[in-house]
Structure formats: C-alpha cells, structure tokens
UniProtKB/TrEMBL annotation:
It comes from the Bacteria. InterPro entries: Bact_solute-bd_prot1 (IPR050490), SBP (IPR006059). This is ABC transporter substrate-binding protein. Keywords: Signal, Transport. Pfam families: SBP_bac_1.
Length: 434
C-alpha cells in the first residue's frame, strides 16, 4: 500500500524506503506552506487536467500550499516563454520536449534539482529516464507522465470480417492492409492535419530500420537527414501512404483529418477504416465515443518490426521542470516524483507512469497496465525524436518537420531524397540557432 507523502523529510523517507514502508512518526509538519501559492503550467485540458488537479490538491492538502494549474494548451512553450520574458515565471512547467527543456536549462531559466528531488528521482526512475531529464550532467526534469508511442489500434470486427490477425512485421502490415482493402474496408486512418502524428510515424519506421544508435545520432543531428537510412525510412512510409485505399480517403483526406476525428473514423458509430496508429492516449478518445470497448472491440498491437529487429518502443512524456527554487516548489517536484502522486492519475486511466515503484495494479484495466509495463521493460526504448530536437524543427505547431512531412503525405509518391534534403536544410538552421 502506498503511504501518504508528508513533505520534504517524510516524503523522502517514503520515496527511498517505499518497499519497507515509512513510519508514521516521520511525518513532516502538515501545513508548512499554509498561505503560500505555487503554480504549475502544462498543456493538459479536459479530463486530463481534472485528474492532474487531483494530484495537486493532494499536495496542497498535505502541505497547506495553494496549488494552481494553468493550461497553455498546444502553445505551452509560447506561454512559458512569454512568462519568462515578463519576469513572471511559473513555479513548475510540464515540458513534453527534452529539446525545449535543454534550451531552458542552457539559458538558466530552468532550475536544477538536487537534494530530496534528486534522491526521489534516483529511487523511482530508471537511469534512462533520469538521463532524459538531465542537461550537462545536472538533473532538471522529473518525468511525471509517459506515453507509449509504438501502438497501432484496430477494430476487432473489421479484422474478423477480413479474416486477418495483428501483424508482427512491416511486411505483414502491408499484407493485412491489402486484405482489409480487398474486403471493402480502408486499412488506416492517418491524422495528417495535426502534423505531429506524422513525426511519430517516421520515428517508429526509422528506429526499426536504422536501429537505436543511428536514431540517437539523428536526434542530436550528428547524422544528416540526407543519410541513406533516412531516405529509406521516408520511402517506406511513402510506399504505404501511396498504396490505393490504404489510407481512408487517400492522402488528401488524411491531410484534413485531425487526431480526434481519426479516432472517430475507426471507433465511432459509423467507422470508415480499420486501424489507427497513435499512442496509448487513444484509449481516452475511444472511451469518450462510447461505442467500442478498449480491450475487446478496440484492440491494439505493437508497432510492427522488421524481421529480426525485436521489440523497439518510441516513448513520449511530460517532465516537471522548476522555474523557481523556492522550498515549496522543490517539495512539489519531489512529490511529483513519488509513487503516490503517480497512483492518483494512474488509477483514473488515460495515464502512464515510468515510476518503477508504482504498483501497476492501480491501473484501471489490463490494456493500460500492459502498455505501462511495456515502457518499463522494453528491450529497446527511445524518446520521441522530434521532441529531442530544437522546437523550431520538431517541437511545436508549425515546426519544420511537421510541415515537411505533411507535404510528403500530400505527394507520397514523390522522391524521398528531395524530402530528406529539405529536412536536412531545416534541421541545420534549427540546430545552428539553438
């Protein structure tokens, strides 16, 4: 059972000694921060915001602090930068891009974390997730939320009608897609209007084709985007996108399809295709539609591998980053690194944690539990490549990688070497300005 977190001293005790329990006598003074306010900004809205606010209320109840959440929506970086520029930084921001985190750290705006926060992170997160929050050897980020981005969702009834099962390899994905089309159902809905899902497509194909070492080199721009492995990954994507009826409505309709619309196209009352690629958070949208049940009518399989490559996972996540170093801020950061804080959101669904001391039994269903455990135990795991890059290239609305992949989706039969050259030109400019 997870015990209550009670401030710096007791919170650190519970974090480090979770397996053995934490003595009730170790409780720090409840109400230590009575009368103090602390603000967290993030991109979450709707149910996700409401669930996170429960986490913040729990911290407030145990410390007396007034915790306020401000949503920046899809323009979170704009909000944070504006607040920094006006001399009114938020205390904590939930940053989804390690590349942006690195820029804030380099400028001195983000505050390094030490002491109880660093100890909690070391106790509860694997070295890989610790490293993702580290810049120049100093810890800045606490990965409160994670995402499994190597998942394809499908309608069980469409697969049954076509007589196919989940594919294990990219070649099998093509075969299954063709069989679905032959049975009268477009294979895949692609939400090209939003841009970011296309970067996720590329990252999964590239990790499988080029391997983790080149993936890391490309993320750091130590490998040019004109490398033959990039061209081949683009060619693989283009071949699938250009195949007749593989994409619901073809590339033109895909470019007009938002992420929310794409979920309805597969799992709504009048489904128009059989599959959708995107991360675990698809389950939240499926549940809102109320037509197909996750785990039965709506199922998933891992992103198909190349023969012999094994299971590789692309992950995303939101890191808590401090922009003030007040004691209340740092105690909040330590709390967000605790299993208790993660359990509040995990129990309500639509959330994955990579806190290795969180009991996965708290997840509300077997599907979410499986996806979370995949993140914890993947043979090969890499963070979302576009989020590792400078924001102007891959990390926000209008970013170059988003726009160039949308242009490629519009004409998937075009020369992938030309697309790669355009990506390299944009990357060189973005990394040079970073």
């Amino acid at each position: 059972m997870l015990r209550r977190w009670r401030g710096t001293a007791a919170g650190l005790c519970c974090t480090l000694l979770l397996a053995a329990g934490c003595s009730a006598g170790a409780a720090a003074a409840t109400g230590r921060y009575t009368g103090q306010s602390v603000e967290v900004v993030g991109s979450w809205t709707g149910a996700e915001q409401a669930n996170f606010e429960r986490v913040l209320r729990a911290f407030g109840d145990q410390t007396g602090a007034r915790v306020r959440y401000t949503s920046g929506g899809s323009d979170l970086s704009v909000l944070v930068s504006s607040r920094l520029g006006s001399g009114n930084p938020p205390d904590v921001a939930m940053i989804p891009q390690p590349g942006v985190l690195a820029q804030y750290a380099a400028s001195g705006a983000a505050k390094p974390v030490t002491g109880a926060v660093a100890a909690a992170v070391r106790a509860n997160f694997s070295p890989q997730w610790q490293q993702l929050g580290t810049v120049g050897g100093q810890l800045y980020g606490v990965y409160f939320k994670a995402a499994n981005k190597s998942v394809i969702w499908y309608r069980a009834d469409a697969f049954a009608a076509a007589g196919v099962g989940p594919p294990a390899t990219l070649d099998e994905l093509t075969e299954v897609s063709q069989t679905l089309v032959d049975s009268g159902t477009p294979a895949m809905t692609v939400p090209g209007a939003d841009g970011w899902p296309l970067t996720d497509w590329f990252e999964n194909v590239y990790l499988q084709l080029a391997g983790p070492q080149r993936y890391d080199q490309l993320a750091a721009h130590e490998l040019p985007w004109t490398d033959p492995t990039v061209v081949e990954a683009l060619r693989t994507m283009g071949r699938y996108w250009a195949a007749p009826q593989f994409l619901q409505g073809g590339p033109k309709v895909a470019l007009q399809t938002t992420f929310t619309r794409s979920v309805a196209d597969v799992f709504g009352a009048r489904p128009t295709s059989a599959m959708l690629y995107e991360a675990d958070f698809v389950t939240t949208e499926i549940a809102k539609l109320g037509v197909y049940r996750v785990g039965s009518g709506a199922r998933h399989f891992a992103w198909p591998s190349l023969a012999g490559t094994g299971h590789m996972v692309v992950a995303g996540g939101d890191a808590a980053v401090a922009f003030t170093d007040r004691p209340v801020t740092m105690d909040l950061m330590a709390y967000l690194a605790s299993p208790e804080a993660a359990a509040i959101m995990a129990g309500r669904g639509g959330f994955l944690s990579v806190n290795r001391n969180l009991d996965t039994a708290v997840y509300p269903d077997a599907t979410t539990r499986e996806l979370a455990e995949t993140l914890l135990h993947a043979e090969t795991l890499r963070f979302d490549l576009s989020d590792m890059t400078p924001r102007s290239f891959g990390g926000g609305n209008g970013a170059s990688m988003w726009r160039l992949l949308q242009a490629y989706l519009a004409a998937p039969a075009s020369d992938p070497a030309v697309v790669a050259a355009r990506l390299e030109d944009a990357a060189a400019k973005a990394y040079g300005a970073a």
